[in-house]
Amino acid sequence: MALHAEAEEFLSRPLERRMAIPLRVEVYTRLTEAIRAGVFPESSLMPSESEIGAALGVSRTVVREAMLLLAEDGFVNSVRGVGRVVSGRLPETGLEKLRPFEEASGDAGRLRRTQHRAEPASADFVASGLGLAPNEPTWLFESVILNGSTPSALLQEHLPGGAVLRRLSPELAEAIEQDTGAGSSALRTLLDALGARLGPAQSRLSVGAVGASRGAVLGLDATAPVLIITQTLECSGRPIYLAKILVDTAAMTPTIVQAL
C-alpha cells in the first residue's frame, strides 16, 4: 500500500537525531505520535517497512526494530498473511509504568524547558535523594508540561554531576550537559541511553500547596493545592535520578491503570 498524503507529510518531517538516543527509538516515537494523532487509525493496516523507511530516511532494519517496540507496547499487532495492524484499543497511559511524565500525561502532554543548569552544591533533598554529599555538583532540569497551551504540571529533575554520568556513559553525560533532548524530559534521555541497566524505580504521591515561585510558573495562587509526585530511579545499585512533579489536577488528572 502506498502512503497516503497525510502519512507522507507526517513521517517526512526530519527526525531529531538526538545524541545518545538510538535511531530505532526516534522512529518508534514518531510512529506512536502518528498512531495517537490518528494518521494511522485504530485497526488500520500499517504501511510496509520499506515505505516507512523511505519516508523517514532510515533503513528497513531500523523500522523493523521500531515495530518490535510498538508491538511490545501494544500499539500494533502482527496478523499472519496481512501485516502489522494498529491495535483496536491503544494502550492507556498512566503512572503504573516508569515513563517520562510528558508521555504519561496522555495525548495532550507537551514539554517546554524552562531551566537547565549545573548546580555546584545540592540542597539536602537533592543530595539525600541522589546519595551525594551536599557539596557535590548536580544537574537541574526544570520543564513545564502543557495541556494544549495550558500549563498543567511543573517537572523538576535532578541528576548527579558529570563524573558519575561519564562513568555510566560518556555519550549520556554529554547529552545531559548540552541538553540535546530539550523537547523532552531528562528521564527520556536516561531511558533511551541506558535502558535495561536502569531500575528499580519508585514514585511517591502526596498533596501540598504549590508555593509562590512554582505557582507563578503554573499560573496558580501560592496556596493552591497540587498533586506532588516524587520519583527516584537507580542504575547499577545507586540513585541516578530524582524528580519532583507538581500537577495542577484542575488541568490534568494522572491515572493508574490496574489489573486483577
Structural write-up:
One of its GO terms (molecular function) is DNA-binding transcription factor activity. InterPro entries: Bact_HTH_transcr_reg, Chorismate_lyase_/UTRA_dom_sf, Tscrpt_reg_HTH_GntR, UTRA, WH-like_DNA-bd_sf, WH_DNA-bd_sf. It holds the Pfam family UTRA. One of its GO terms (biological process) is negative regulation of DNA-templated transcription. Keywords: DNA-binding, Transcription, Transcription regulation. By secondary structure, the protein is an alpha+beta fold. It folds into two domains: 82 residues, Orthogonal Bundle (Arc Repressor Mutant, subunit A), CATH 1.10.10; 147 residues, Chorismate lyase (3-Layer(aba) Sandwich), CATH 3.40.1410.10. 33% of the residues lie in helices and 28% in strands. It is built from ten helices and eight strands. The strands form two sheets. Strands 3-4-5-8-7-6 form a six-stranded antiparallel beta sheet. A two-stranded antiparallel sheet has the order 1-2. A hairpin with a 3-residue loop joins strand 1 and strand 2. Helix 2 crosses helix 4, helix 7 crosses helix 8 and helix 8 packs antiparallel against helix 9.
List its salient traits.
260 residues, alpha+beta, Arc Repressor Mutant, subunit A, Chorismate lyase, 2 domains, 6-stranded antiparallel sheet, 8 strands, GntR family transcriptional regulator, transcription regulation
Quick structural summary:
The chain is α+β, with helices and mostly antiparallel strands.
| Structural shape | globular
How much beta, percentage-wise?
Answer: 25-35%
Major sheet strand order: 3-4-5-8-7-6
SS content category: alpha+beta
Distance N to C terminus: 40 Å
How many extended strands? 8
Largest sheet: 6 strands, antiparallel
User: What is the name of the CATH topology of the largest domain?
Assistant: Chorismate lyase
What is the top-level CATH class of the largest domain? Alpha Beta
Contiguous runs where pLDDT drops below 50 for at least 5 residues: none
Q: What series of H and E elements makes up the topology?
A: HHHHEEHEHEEHHHEHEE
Specify the number of helices.
10
Rg from Cα:
19 Å
Count of spatially separate domains: 2
The mean pLDDT is 87
Question: Fraction of residues in helices?
Answer: 25-40%
Keywords: DNA-binding, Transcription, Transcription regulation
Protein name: GntR family transcriptional regulator
Organism: Leifsonia shinshuensis
Domain HTH gntR-type: 21-89
